[in-house]
Amino acid sequence: MTNRSGGGPSDDRENPDRRGPARVMRAAHRAGLALATILHIAVFTGTAARAASPLATESDQFMVVSSQHLAAEAGAEILRAGGNAIDAAVAVGYAEAVTNPCCGNIGGGGFLVAHLADGRDVFLNFRETAPAAARPDMYLDANGNVIPGASLRGWRAAGVPGTVLGLDTALTRYGSMPRTTVMAPAVRLAREGFVLTRGDTDIIARGAPLLRQQAAVARIFSRPDGSPFEPGDRLIQLDLAQTLAAATLCVNPHKSGCWTTIQAAVDHASAYDVIQVAAGTYKEYVTIGIPVSIFGAGADSTIVNAANLPHGFFVDGFDHPGLARVSIAGFTVENALFEGILVVSASHVTIRKNNINDNDTSPGLLFTMATTGCPDQPGSGTYENDETGDCGGALHLVGTSHSIVSDNLMTGNADGVLISDETAESHDNLLIHNTIKDNPLECGIVLGSHPPSGHASAPFAPHFGINNNTVAENVSTGNGVKIGGSGVGLFSDGNGAGTVTGNLIIRNTLIGNGLGGVALHTHVGPAFKLPADNFYGNVIIGNYIAKNLADLDDTATPGSVGININSGGGGTPVRGTVISYNVIREEDVDIAVNTPAEVDIHLNDLGGDKVGVADVCAFDKATVCTGNINATLNYWGCKDGPGAAGCTTVSGSDISFAPWLREAIRKDEAQHDD
């Protein structure tokens, strides 16, 4: 039995001709299972067989063999309590996840082979599988070359685990005890800890270089002062204990033993529990204040109808400080007065595979530029600032970190996703594989720096910041065509010094939006005798951009625009911006720039048919026009460079464009329907 990769459990496979260790036990079967092998475990029950030479260890009751003695003892504990061999094997499997961190797991997969008392041999395959969205090119760079280490480290390297499903399937089919009983030894070992031997510390030491790369992991697998564990130290894993101890609650108005509403299940859940919601329509507003996972039966069949209610889901870390590890998946969330899903002051939140549609039903939405003004909006002036014009959106993350928004559909809302910073810095979030389309009032995706809670009027305080977020491989189309919004926007609102730094906008499809494909706006600064915003180190790379509209007001462009880097009239320098590997089509201006700093534009395919790169500082009537644009090594639509027949041009001074590329680098235009 190996602890390796695998998928969900297969059907039982009977093989009456199989030989091996099971033969030893045929003379003394119990009423349950005689033998199970799982994850380097062998569990034997019955009377010891006699061999030609003495065995090192013998028993006339049972035997549990594992690579970790404490895990083996967990299995023995279950057998003493009356469990069968599968009960013991599952107990050992979970205990190995605690006591054998190199090899035991709940994040991988494995196999199970068992010989049953009725003579059948059964086999379960629960190796982990590749994610459904995996692609053949996911470990390749833009040139088709393998990215070293990409398949071994990082989020793209992870498979979909099979261990928990495999162990649970084995227990359900062949075990005799409830899951809470067989998992109790593992929970106890994680919560109370266990004393490390030299073998344990040697294993941890071998993994130390990788463990140190993640601060949260390093804190678990080292002493409090950061020094390495030594034999005799105790390893305590409280987060793992909470995960193992989690219960599953059900929501189904038509099934006995289940809660009738999602909110009732949340109110009765403990931290880290899982709530499974049956298909149906639930007319409610769900507030979440504990770590919990809420899974619908699928977005097509499990609907949260929040008509005349503020939100469908509210992940409320504002009133529950430190809230973390909430998951919401498999729902349609619709008809809320404001956001469909609102997350405030939380971390490690996952929002995935939801349809968040037709929210923002509050009447009279009007963009006034005021920091408050959405009638009856909960949190207005505290965690909801600068919201006029949309008064919510499909999904709003406020003061949120280390969270994942993936594989959602958002349409028919005022706007799509907003990440803002009223209550705390919003940082290290990932938005990936979402489709955000036809949200008509404002942007598809916004990283917006807003005034802090309690500072919605002058004098404004510095903002917490929107930093180091990744917006990757989303489709953002047809957004912001009424009031005005881009496919992806990076903004500060002008009410105090904003911070938007280190964000990555990569491999998105941005078509037909209202203020350009990507818009980066700062509105205040030295020209107004105000502190400058901090817009440093944002990267816009590998996006496909086409058919967007013109930008407006103090960040205006002379026609439709693909990317607009614009300081307005405030004179804040936008530094460290990198624009590379983008493909731009059917725009009047592919890339517009107005900022008193250098902007680097390289390796793009500027085929928008008119102006490839434009300095729009004078067009915007800005008073600080001291920047320069390094636009060398781009492809301008033909081999002969800017201004040649069939090529786009440059507009304005302070633009360096030679040398240029004679052919495009990216060849993936055919993948896009523009």
The gist of it:
The chain is an alpha/beta fold and 674 residues long. 13% of the residues lie in helices and 28% in strands.
Give the tags:
8 helices; disordered N terminus; elongated; 674 residues; Pectate Lyase C-like; alpha/beta; 3 domains
Question: How would you describe this structure to a colleague?
Answer:
The structure is a single chain. By secondary structure, this protein is an alpha/beta fold. It has three domains: 142 residues, no CATH class; 25 residues, no CATH class; 395 residues, Pectate Lyase C-like (3 Solenoid), CATH 2.160.20. The chain is 13% helix and 28% strand. The chain has eight helices and 47 strands. It has a 21-stranded parallel sheet that branches. It has a 14-stranded parallel sheet with strand order 8-9-12-15-18-21-25-29-33-37-41-43-45-47, with helices on one face. The longest helix is centred in the first third of the chain and has 15 residues. The protein is elongated and about 90 Å long. The N terminus is likely disordered.
Q: Biggest β-sheet: count, sense, barrel? A: 21 strands, parallel
The level 1 CATH classification of the largest domain is Mainly Beta
Structural class call reads alpha/beta
Which strand-content bin applies to the residues?
25-35%
CATH topology of the largest domain: Pectate Lyase C-like
| Total DSSP helices | 8
Helix content: 10-25%
The total count of strands amounts to 47
Query: Which consecutive residue ranges, at least 5 long each, have pLDDT under 50?
Result: 1-34, 47-52
Cα separation of the termini:
52 Å
Number of domains: 3
Question: What is the architecture of the largest domain at the second tier of CATH?
Answer: 3 Solenoid
